[in-house]
Write the structure tokens for this entry.
Amino acid sequence: MTALFALATSLLWGLADFGGGLLTRRAPALTVVVVSQSIAAVVLGAVVVTGGGWSEAGPRLWFAVAAGLAGPVALLAFYQALALGPMGVVSPLATLSVAVPVSVGLFLGERPGLVQVAGIAVAVAGVVLAGGPQLRGAAVQRRAVLLTLVAALGFGTVFVLITEASTTVTGLFLALFVQRVTSAAVGGAVLYATVRRGTPALPEGGLPRAALPAYAFVGLADVAANGTYAVAAQHGPVTVAAVLASLYPVVTALAARGFLRERLRAVQAAGAGLALVGTLLLATG
């Protein structure tokens, strides 16, 4: 069950990143984040109200609030790092986020077997290579590296916090709702501040209604990924769940290949293959 839900997390996050990347070509990244998270919050709110999720309210929801605060900070740092580039260095470096939940799992006493350790190493190497790292001729600003590390720390922290936010399915919906409301509020406040400084929040001509389903998909896929990861981490070793969930860059690369006809570089194809081998080792170890 852990492998299944963790792989579902990678699929959902990979597709959400792909969709978000397409949307940011037409609208500011912060606007994409705020709109998609707000739509997800509305849908989750309806689920919580109809499903009686409020009965699960308790101190654990503070973990969801913390995840909602860490998420937007990580996203903003990541987008700023991508703007400074090069993307071929920034994107693979962000996968260091897996170190946070893996470290927590080891600290709590998890001891994966030798096959799983080998699987973790192979899978992480595959994810990094699937990002298409620029090994030569890639001048990287120190600020870009620092922002990427901040983003990785933030993403990894969200991994850990959302796992602790609930212990039941009903409680998980409530925790995800609280997380998304917090994220939308924080992102909205930052967006308001940028508008006050003269930065446009919407593309020319406004936000087309035809694009709303795409925003909804990005927001809901991200929410679903958080949920499947929480289930994976609660029903198996966090070290395994975190590594398998971190395979989403492979999904994003394959989606770009399939929908945009982007050609995979040799290093990316090799990385995808290694990630698959690592996944098999983790699932069978």
About this structure: Residues 30 and 76 are 7 Å apart (CA to CA). Residues 169-196 form the longest helix (28 residues). The radius of gyration is 18 Å.
